[in-house]
Design goal:
heterodimer; A: alpha/beta; Rossmann fold; 3 domains; six-stranded mixed sheet; 33% helix; B: mainly alpha; ABC transporter involved in vitamin B12 uptake, BtuC
Chain lengths: 509, 375
């Protein structure tokens, strides 16, 4: 059999005992495009990190051959030298430098004492024409749109004599027109004999572009098929085809009257052309668990930030809480109104790492413990802490232990305890079980049902479809900042949600 | 759990050890002159100004900010106090109130730019460092404002009457033991595990002994210097704020992770501005002591004092990354710096060597800290 350009065999990668990749094989020839499909967290990124050398040789099992040689990369530099270039979702250009300076960053032409601007300029022009970009090489990157920046990244890769290009969700923030340009570029690169691994949730692009489609689910290699023989539905069922197991302890509970009405939610980062949340309306009932699904970047988190007063850009939203209109422009106001939020990014927004577990928990309600001269009634505080540590089964050696020493699951439980100590009417959970082991997940689900039985309403944002279906009473699906569908949990399948979240133009609203 | 307790205790122990080492070294080198009551009294009086500056600074650094304007601000506030006293003959109380108020305003001014206008504290206070000094020179026309009245001299030059010193220290010791007792009682009541009684009372006993022997030495000379009394009161107040109040807790949280603090509903901007306001008041107190001690308001007063204050905090275990630090540590740091200054002066070490040694000690202290934290 002829030697393929890329041959990854039996890749296994574990993180502290948990297998993120479980024997994945990928083979690809020069001039071919392979699309990598899978849900968020299925192992796509991990696989690409193995390939590009972010996870060095030895930290995974299996072998990688590229252009006939085995790759034993120790860093991303090694694979780049071989001609494998990865272009990430978050662009890695220096905004304050020109296009030319970015393209040659780190390998400027000329010698140590003098940079050869003229030949760099000429070469940049040639590269830019290869990616169909008619801009001057001395344009500042900050003046370019996201789509153009993406093309500059590709030009930069071409400059490094690339043999294989990895594009990680390149179109997630592009307009339709820009997407078409990008797809054309990829096709022309293909004709020039460059192989491409394309990661995308947008199945129409996947089918339009690829020779092969490889589906990964929970780290397992499900199948690699010729794209010509596949439909979008085939891919979706391969992506989500797992059995629903008994992970979700659904419990009957009463759902009351509408407690929260959100109207005309709108949010945009200053300077961005596309809003992240665009005219979303929804209702939440007392004692209800409302799931919010959608792809990363669909505006789920941003919508929650609008409710909690923590959106970093400009936003507007009409909120009616228990029949009364509320203005929430800050986190304090949200907490006061009875809305608490467990943030998506635990490390950045959730914990004060060097503070004790207990002190993290009481941070929002310190005023409650104030006695004379602003002193904290530590005994009273301590009783509350112990009660909630017990209630949420947080495993910690002591309440004074710095929270950074706890496991992810226990940190998360402590953050939920922090929210519960404010006695919220509405609890927002943004990716509550991300990076948490199965046992802790189960406990968190149990707790959610206990809370709704007490009359708390929960909004849960999650990328894990089984979780959304298994836990929620009702599911909203978001797509590009808009509400695209609304489902009751009865009879809801992952395919229905994925169809709604991925396919263009379908709407069940 | 034991890891964290050990780390912070180790740090305190290391500082005490360093201080003892310095004490022994200079005592031998100066043939005992270093530990004479007169010199000890001198030494801790020298500590007062940097110590009080460090009390304000430690809060600033815990909140992950910095204040470079402290030296110039102290000069300016000291100048204001001198002008009120020498030119306008204001009564002492009024001068004190006005100076402290001015300190509060200057501090809040810094804080407003930092917290609400989001200008980095390094820049805001660098601007303050230049501008405050400029205002001082402009106000005084570049000449020393002197001589200050005898009433102003009380703040920096007087000593507590001997009976007072005795009772103050006695009260302090009683308070210390009572605090340990009441805390143990409360813990027991709420079912919290207590440390061994021997350990906790032992620590209190050592502190009591140290205070009593300090008192004995000071009483042997002229008594407790008023600036040290003031510093002592401020240490108690500031420790209380840092450890026991919601405000203090929030300052630590902001320094530890400002985003998480914000998400927890902490009013980050307001808290930061108040930290700088508090710092301004501390600077005003230090300025009053300085002017009183010099008996004049000098246009060069307080030059580079911010660096001493920052160094004291850092030697005392405060992390420039924010979230970590104690008032007592900062005071210890100030004491170490002052001891080095004092001892080297007694040995007639040339000034340039003194600067080099102090720089080396600062570097060494932080290097040791980084090393031990890595392990």
């Amino acid at each position: 059999m002829k030697q393929k350009l890329l041959d990854m065999r039996g890749i296994v990668k574990s993180f502290s005992g948990v297998r993120a990749l479980n024997g994945v094989d990928i083979r690809l020839d020069a001039g071919e495009v392979l699309s990598l499909c899978g849900e968020n967290g299925s192992g796509k990124s991990t696989l690409m990190k193995v390939l590009s050398g972010v996870w060095p040789y030895g930290s995974y099992e299996g072998r990688i051959f590229f252009a006939g040689q085995e790759i034993k990369a120790t860093s991303i530099r090694d694979t780049e030298a071989q001609g494998i270039v990865i272009i990430h979702q978050e662009l890695a250009l220096v905004k304050e430098l020109t296009v030319m300076e970015n393209i040659f960053l780190g390998n400027e032409l000329g010698h140590a004492w003098r940079i050869n601007e003229e030949s760099m300029y000429r070469q940049t022009l040639a590269l830019l024409s290869r990616v169909n970009l008619s801009i001057a090489p001395d344009t500042l990157v900050s003046e370019l749109g996201v789509g153009q920046q993406q093309l500059v990244e590709i030009a930069k890769a071409l400059n490094k004599d690339v043999k294989m290009l990895i594009l990680d969700e390149p179109t997630s923030s592009l307009t339709n027109q820009e997407i078409q340009i990008l797809l054309d570029i990829v096709r022309s690169l293909k004709e020039q004999g460059i192989a491409c691994i394309y990661i995308s949730h947008k199945l129409d692009e996947v089918l339009a572009l690829s020779d092969w489609v490889c589906v990964i689910r929970d780290g397992d290699h499900i199948a690699t098929r010729a794209a010509a023989a596949l439909t979008q539905n085939d891919i979706i069922s391969m992506m989500v085809g797992r059995e629903m197991d008994q992970l979700f302890p659904r419990e009957e509970h009463e759902i009351g009257e509408v407690i929260l009405r959100v109207n005309k939610a709108f949010a945009r980062l200053s300077g961005a052309s596309r809003p992240q949340v665009d005219g979303v309306n929804f209702e939440l009932r007392k004692g209800e668990i409302l799931g919010i699904a959608g792809l990363i970047g669909s505006g789920r988190t941003e919508l929650m930030q609008c409710l909690f007063g923590s959106y970093p850009g400009e936003y507007s939203v009409d909120i009616e809480l228990a029949g009364q209109s509320q203005v929430i422009r800050s986190q304090q106001a949200a907490l006061k109104a009875g809305i608490a939020m467990v943030p998506e990014d635990r490390k950045r927004h959730g914990i004060v790492p060097i503070m004790g577990v207990g002190r993290n928990m009481t941070l929002p309600i310190l005023d409650k413990y104030q006695t004379w001269f602003g002193a904290i009634n530590e005994q009273q505080e301590h009783q509350d802490i112990e009660r909630y540590l017990e209630r949420l089964k947080v495993k910690t050696a002591s309440a004074d232990l710095a929270i950074k020493h706890l496991s992810g699951g226990n940190q998360q439980k402590a953050i939920i305890a922090k929210c519960l100590l404010t006695h919220p009417n509405i609890l927002i959970l943004d990716e509550p079980t991300r990076g948490i082991d199965v046992g802790a997940k189960y406990e968190i689900y149990k707790l959610m049902y206990a809370l709704v039985k007490d009359g708390v309403s929960i909004i849960m944002v999650s990328s894990e479809l089984p979780e959304v279906i298994g836990i929620s009473d009702r599911v909203l699906v978001m797509h590009e900042g808009r509400l695209k569908g609304q489902f009751e949990h009865q009879g809801l399948t992952q395919e229905m949600i994925m169809n709604c979240a991925i396919k263009e133009g379908v709407s069940n609203v | 759990m034991f890891k964290t307790i050990k780390a912070s205790q180790l740090q305190l122990l290391a500082m005490i050890a360093a201080l003892l080492l310095i004490l022994v070294f200079f005592s031998i080198a100066t043939e005992g002159a270093f530990i004479s009551p007169r010199n000890i009294s001198n030494l801790i009086r020298q500590t007062a100004i940097v110590g009080i500056l460090a009390i304000g600074m430690v809060f600033v650094i815990i909140s992950a900010e910095i204040d470079l304007s402290v030296g110039s601000m102290m000069g300016l506030l000291g100048g204001i106090a001198a002008i009120l006293d020498v030119w306008f003959h204001f009564p002492l109380i009024l001068s004190i109130v006005i100076t402290m108020f001015a300190g509060l305003v200057l501090g809040l001014f810094n804080g407003w730019w930092i917290a609400y206008q989001k200008v980095p504290s390094f820049i805001v206070t660098l601007a303050g460092m230049l501008a405050f000094r400029g205002i001082l020179v402009g106000l005084t026309d570049g000449v020393t404002v002197a001589p200050t009245s005898s009433s102003l001299a009380i703040i920096g030059q007087s000593y507590l009457p001997s009976g007072w010193g005795m009772s103050v220290i006695a009260l302090l010791c009683l308070g210390l033991v009572a605090r340990v007792f009441s805390r143990r009682q409360a813990r027991q009541k709420h079912g919290v595990v207590n440390h061994a009684a021997k350990f906790e009372y032992g620590k209190a006993l050592i502190a009591v002994m140290a205070l009593l022997s300090l008192l004995a030495i000071l009483e042997n000379y002229r008594g407790i210097p008023t600036p040290i009394f003031i510093m002592g009161v401020l240490i108690l107040v500031a420790t209380y704020i840092a450890k026991r109040t919601a405000f203090g807790r929030r300052v630590y949280a902001i320094g530890g992770n400002i985003e998480a603090a914000r998400m927890s509903g902490v009013k980050v901007e307001k808290t930061k501005m108040l930290v700088f306001g508090f710092n301004g008041v501390m600077v005003a107190v230090a300025a009053l002591i300085l002017t009183s001690r010099l008996g004049a308001g000098s246009p060069a007063a307080g030059n580079m004092a911010e660096l001493d204050a920052i160094a004291a905090c850092v030697i005392g275990g405060t992390s420039l990354a924010g979230g970590i630090g104690t008032v007592l540590g900062a005071i210890m740091g100030a004491l170490i710096m002052a001891s080095l200054d004092n001892g080297m002066s007694m040995l007639d070490v040339p000034t340039f060597w003194q600067l080099i040694v102090k720089g080396a000690i600062l570097l060494l202290a932080v290097w040791l800290d980084v090393k031990t934290k890595k392990q």
